[in-house]
Amino acid sequence: MPVVQVDQVHKRYGPLEVLKGVSMAVERGEVVAIIGRSGSGKSTLLRCLNGLEPIQSGRIEVAGHVLDASGRGLRALRKDVGIVFQSYNLFPHLRVAENIMLAPRVALGLSKRDARARAEATLAQVGLAEKIEAWPDNLSGGQQQRVAIARSLAMQPKVMLFDEVTSALDPELTGEVLATLEALARDGMTMLLVTHEMAFARRVAHRTIFMHQGLLHEEGPSEALFGAPRTLELRQFLAGGL
Ligand code: ADP
Ligand code: MG
């Protein structure tokens, strides 16, 4: 059973059709990169997978939760699907520990002690155990993004979605966040990541999907997709042309 199963999903914003019949599946433990031009629908696809955007038709099943155009089943789904965006959005008035403990406390009803234990464990996972009492403002952008990842992991999601999580960072800070993602991948986390980091996608993702104009235009094992792109559109994209 795939962890993520997407069948013929159509998504419109008013007259603009952004997803034009997207189908895909992600197996447990698989790391899938999504690449493509700005505006091709990558973020919309991730947002639909997490139920942040309703779909007009088709079917999405994530971690056993079914989403269709009715919008039922959202709450349960979001507990099992973590999503991290380009902007990390930590709560500035809460310390790192409380940032991470909040959702497990509120959404899962964990005790303070259990939530704290999760904060400690997930911070260790992203290599920031010593920052548990820090204020977000006192962390670098890369560290804040790693805390945001830890915060998502604290819900013990079955799948993690990452939308250009290094794009807002200075180049010297992207490496530490990519290393965190790579460690997660190595630990067997099921991951879908939208990224501009082509070398990273090629090396770390088992499979890469190239989105073009609201469709999955080409996909395959990362090494093959980057090494021998079949379609003109992907070749042009990888060559950096418009
Ligand atoms: P990508 O992440 O690949 O850059 P997006 O999924 O963000 O692409 O956007 C795909 C298309 O949908 C773009 O044309 C964008 O302008 C449009 N779009 C995205 N979000 C909205 C929205 N909330 N309302 C209207 N149009 C949107
Ligand atoms: Mg986007």
Largest sheet: 6 strands, mixed
Number of strands: 10
Mean pLDDT: 95
* SSE order, one letter for each helix or strand: EEEHEEHEHHHEHEHEEHH
Helix count equals 9
- The general outline is globular
Residue share in β-strands: 25-35%
Q: List each distinct ligand once.
A: adenosine-5'-diphosphate, magnesium ion
Distance between the termini: 38 Å
By secondary-structure content and strand pairing, the structural class works out as alpha/beta
Question: Radius of gyration, Cα only, in angstroms?
Answer: 18 Å
Order of strands side by side in the largest beta sheet? 6-7-8-3-9-10
Helical content stands at: 25-40%
| Low-pLDDT residue intervals, each spanning 5 or more residues | none
Overview of the structural elements:
Pfam families: ABC_tran. Residues 4-238 form the ABC transporter domain. Its main location: membrane. It is a peripheral membrane protein. Belongs to the ABC transporter superfamily. The protein is of the alpha/beta class. 38% of the residues lie in helices and 26% in strands. The protein is built from nine helices and ten strands. The protein has helices spanning 42-49, 74-80, 96-108, 112-125, 141-153, 171-186, 198-204, 222-227, 232-238; strands at residues 4-13, 16-26, 31-36, 57-62, 65-67, 81-84, 159-163, 191-194, 207-212, 215-221. Strands 6-7-8-3-9-10 form a six-stranded mixed sheet, with helices on both faces. A four-stranded antiparallel sheet has the order 2-1-4-5, covered by helices on one side. Helix 3 packs parallel to helix 5, helix 4 (112-125) packs across helix 5 and helix 5 packs parallel to helix 6 (171-186). The longest helix is centred in the last third of the chain and has 16 residues, at 171-186. It is globular. The model has no long low-confidence stretch (mean pLDDT 95). The chain binds adenosine-5'-diphosphate and magnesium ion.
